[in-house]
Amino acid sequence: MPASVSAAPDLSGLIELSRDPALDLKPVILRVQTDMFVAAPNRDRAMIHAFESLAAGLIPTVDDATATIVADKLGGCPDLPDAVRAALAARGLDVAPPRPPQDQAEADRELAENPGVLIGTRVLERLLARARRDADLARILLARPDIPAADLAPLWLHAGADGRRAIGEAVEATAALRPCPHAPRALASALVQLSHARDVNGFVTALGEGLGLPQDYLTAAPDPASRYDLLTLALRAADLSEGEAVFVFLTLNDTVARSVDRVFSLVTLFRETSRAGARDLLVAILGAPVLERGAQAEHRPFHGPEAAKSRSAATAVRPALPSRLRRTS
Questions:
Q1: Do both 58 and 122 map to the same domain?
Q2: Of 58, 92, 296, 319, which is the most exposed, with the fewest CB atoms less than 10 Å away?
Q3: What range defines the domain where residue 239 resides?
């Protein structure tokens, strides 16, 4: 016997009482059964058939007030039998159609907006993953005082100045605990040359490949303005010097170069973020590893017995920054 039928209360006594002309329990039975049907989390075929038999038989016999209450209760309820809907229609009562199922995005937004709900770790991970692409949900989560700043690192690009500062301080507190591998030696020089040539696509590709970023890493920025903030974190993780970073800010994009305030804010971000902190912020924002050592990489100590003993080891020096060409009208 289905669980819904075996667990249902025995109403045979009430049904017998309903046949007593001195007592009119039909409205009570109909309302109680309607409440149970609407509140049921799952409705199998046997439960639907039982409610159909009872309700379709009682609706024509109850008073108008009871019929109206039942129609309101069943409004938007899924699994409503056609016979029950027809019985109410015969009384001149329309039942609202079933509500469309709530999508996950709407449910997540309602959950985030409820200050009385304590968001657990797994739920927070799901919300943060969606909020990376949903600016409204990101704004709601950033405004919650019960979520630690470190947990909000994936939403750094969506945060305001105060939020970014708090997140940055929380990330910096633990960033140095994890080793930060060196970026490719020639990456900084290649980026400077590409910026000087104003090859934006080549610059973005070289930076992403040098740090092991996803191919579409710039799409993590919610708007064009925040793309340069993301690029600045990547430049810091790529171990560019401050002079090299400033050169990129002044040559790669004319719109940025013409704004003194914008260049100053980017330089400030570059200065105030450690290389390990920039790496960890990128990991959180992109949800992907950054600057991870390859599994096949072999560590060779410089002073190990197999190390080559060179009497004159030339120190690799980065080439000087190319001079910025002066434009003539």
A1: no
A2: 296
A3: 187-286
Q: Is pTM beyond 0.70 here?
A: no
pLDDT in tens, 69-109: 999 999 888 889 999 999 999 999 999 888 776 678 888 89
Are 84 and 141 members of one domain?
Answer: no
Residues 191 and 278 placed together within one structural domain of the fold:
yes
Q: Within a domain: residue 43? A: yes
Residue 125 lies in a domain: yes
- Are residues 127 and 40 part of one domain? no
Confidence (pLDDT) at 195? 96
